[in-house]
C-alpha cells in the first residue's frame, strides 16, 4: 500500500518541489471545478430554462458562462494560502489577482444579463414604442466603471474609498471625456419620456441625408435605414438639438395626404352654352350640381330682368366651375378616399404656368405602393376627362410643337 505519510515526509526535504506540487494540484482542482460547473451545471441550467422559454438558451449562455468563471477564481483565492512554502507576498499577489478576476467576471456577466434583457424586451409588443437600449447601455457603463475601481483597489490591496476620494479632482476631466455620453444620455431620456422617436418610425432629416425607417436607438447613435437601403447613423443628441420630420402621425391616422394640382390653361376657361350644359348633365356626378346651379341662376337672372338691368349682369355657368364640381363629387364617391378627413378641390393663385386646381385629400391607406397607385388612378382619370369640359392643361412648348410651325414656301422668280 502506498505510504502517503512517508511520501509527505520525503517531499518536506524538498520545499520547492512541495510548493510546485501544491500549485499544480490547486490549478488542477480549479480546472476540474471549471469543467464541472461550466460543462455539466451550465448545460443542465440551459436545458431546464430552454424548455421553459423558447430560444432562451442561446441568450442565457453568455450570462451563465461569465458567472461560472467565478468558481475557479474562488478556489484559487481560498486555496493559495494552503500551498506550502509560498511567500506571504506571493500569496497576497495571487489572491488580489484572483479577486480582481472575480470582479471582472461578475461585471461581464451582469453586462451579458443586460444584453439578454434587451433582447427579450425587443420581442415584446411594447418594444416598438419605447426603446430601453440606451438606458441599459448607461447602466453597463456605470457597472464597468464601478468594476474598474474595484479591480484597481483589489490589485493594489487598498480600499475603494481611497480611489473614489481622488475622483473629485478628476471631475472636470471626466466631464470632458464623457461629454458626448452625457449629452446622449440626456437626449435619450428626452426622446423616450416624450415619446418623440420609436424603432420603426419613418423620419426625414435632410441636413444629414436621412430619409427612412429607424432601425435602432442606442445611447450614442440612432440608425436610420434609408429607402435606398443605405444606413445613416445620427448622434442621439442631434435628435434633440436639430429638427426632423416624423411620419408616425400619418401612419397611425390611417390616411396619407394627396396634395397635387392640375395646371389649367386659363385661356380655355369660358362660359357654358345651353347645349353644352345639357350635354354635361349626362355625367351622373354633376347632374345635381348643374340642376341646382341652373335653378339658382335662373332665379337670379329673373330678378335682374324684373329690375330692368342690362343682360351683361346675368350669371352663367363656366366649364371650369363644372369641372371643379365634378372633381369634388368624384373624390367624395371614391372608395379609396377617406371621407372623414379633409377633402378639398380648390383654385390657387393664378401663375404664369396656368391656373392651379389643387386636390387636397387623404387616401384610405398609408402603404406607399397603394398610395401611389390610388393617386395615379385619380389623376389619370382627371387628365383623360378634362377635354370633355373644354379645358386644356398648360404645357410649355416642346420641340415637337415648334416642328409643326413651318415657314411658308419661298416663291421662285421666273
From TrEMBL:
Domain Mechanosensitive ion channel MscS C-terminal: 314-392
Main location as per UniProt: membrane
Sequence ranges assigned to domain Mechanosensitive ion channel MscS in this UniProt record: 180-248
Membrane topology, from the record: Multi-pass membrane protein
One Pfam family in the UniProt entry: MS_channel_2nd
Domain of life: Bacteria
The keyword Transmembrane helix belongs to this UniProt entry's keyword annotation: yes
Alphabetized UniProt keyword annotations: Membrane, Transmembrane, Transmembrane helix
Membrane-crossing segments per the record: 20-37, 100-122, 134-155, 161-178
Subcellular localization(s) per the UniProt record: Endomembrane system
Family per similarity comment: Belongs to the MscS (TC 1.A.23) family.
Official protein name in the record: Mechanosensitive ion channel family protein
Organism: Brevundimonas olei
